[in-house]
Write a structure and sequence with these properties.
single chain, 194 residues, alpha+beta, Methane Monooxygenase Hydroxylase, Chain G, domain 1, 2 domains, three-stranded antiparallel sheet, 4 helices
C-alpha cells in the first residue's frame, strides 16, 4: 500500500531548555478517523510524539505526525477496469475472422491511443518515484500485448497469401499448423491475461 507520514517538528531556538517546556498532548478529535481524508487518501493516524534533542542546551522536540494511506478504489475504477476491458475487446476484435486488415489496424491503434491516455492520467496522478509503480507496469504490459497482437494480425495475411501461392492447404502444412497454433495460443493467453 502507498503510505506516507507527514510530520511537523516544533522547537524553540530563542529559549534555553530550562526556560520552557512543551507538553505534547492532544485533545480528542472532533471527527473519527474514518471521516478524515478525501476520496484518494484516508487518514490512519494523527498524534504527537516527544523526541529528545541531540543538543543538550535545547529542550525536547515535539513532533506532530499524520499518516495517510492511498485508497486503491480510485485507481481500480479509473485505470485497471477500463484497461482490462479495452484490451480484452481489442484482442477479441483483432482475432475475429475479418479479412479487412485496415479495420483491425484501426481497432489496434485506437486501443494504443486509449492506453496512452490512461498512462497520461497515471503520470499526472501518481507520485514520482525512482521505480516504476505496479499500476503503470500493468498498463504497459497490456499495451505490449496489444501491440504484439497487432503485429501478429499483420503477419497472418502475409503468410496465408504465401501458402496459397504454393497451392497447398495452409492448414495442413507445418508452417500453417505452426501459425494456427500461435494464433490460438495468443487468443487464449490474451483472454486469460487481460
Amino acid at each position: 500500500m502507498d503510505q506516507h507520514e507527514c510530520g511537523v517538528t516544533v522547537l524553540f531556538h530563542n529559549y534555553f531548555n530550562d526556560e520552557y517546556k512543551i507538553h505534547g498532548e492532544m485533545e480528542a478529535m472532533a471527527k473519527p478517523m474514518s471521516q478524515l481524508g478525501n476520496g484518494e487518501w484516508k487518514v490512519t493516524y494523527v498524534g504527537v510524539a516527544e523526541q529528545d534533542s541531540l543538543n543538550p542546551s535545547l529542550s525536547s522536540i515535539q513532533r506532530f505526525v499524520a499518516r495517510i494511506e492511498r485508497n486503491p478504489g480510485f485507481y481500480v475504477s479509473l485505470v485497471m477496469v477500463p484497461a482490462y476491458f479495452i484490451n480484452l475487446l481489442t484482442i477479441i476484435a483483432l482475432f475475429m475472422d475479418i479479412e479487412n486488415v485496415g479495420e483491425k489496424i484501426s481497432v489496434g491503434l485506437t486501443n494504443i491511443m486509449a492506453m496512452t491516455f490512461i498512462l497520461v492520467i497515471l503520470a499526472a496522478d501518481l507520485p514520482k518515484t525512482a521505480r516504476i509503480l505496479l499500476l503503470a507496469i500493468y498498463v504497459i504490459v497490456g499495451l505490449v500485448i496489444v501491440m504484439t497482437s497487432i503485429f501478429v494480425v499483420l503477419l497472418i495475411p502475409y503468410f496465408r497469401k504465401k501458402w496459397t501461392s504454393g497451392h497447398t492447404d495452409p492448414r495442413k502444412s507445418k508452417i500453417g499448423k505452426f501459425w494456427n497454433n500461435i494464433e490460438y495460443i495468443l487468443m487464449l493467453f490474451s483472454s486469460s491475461r487481460i
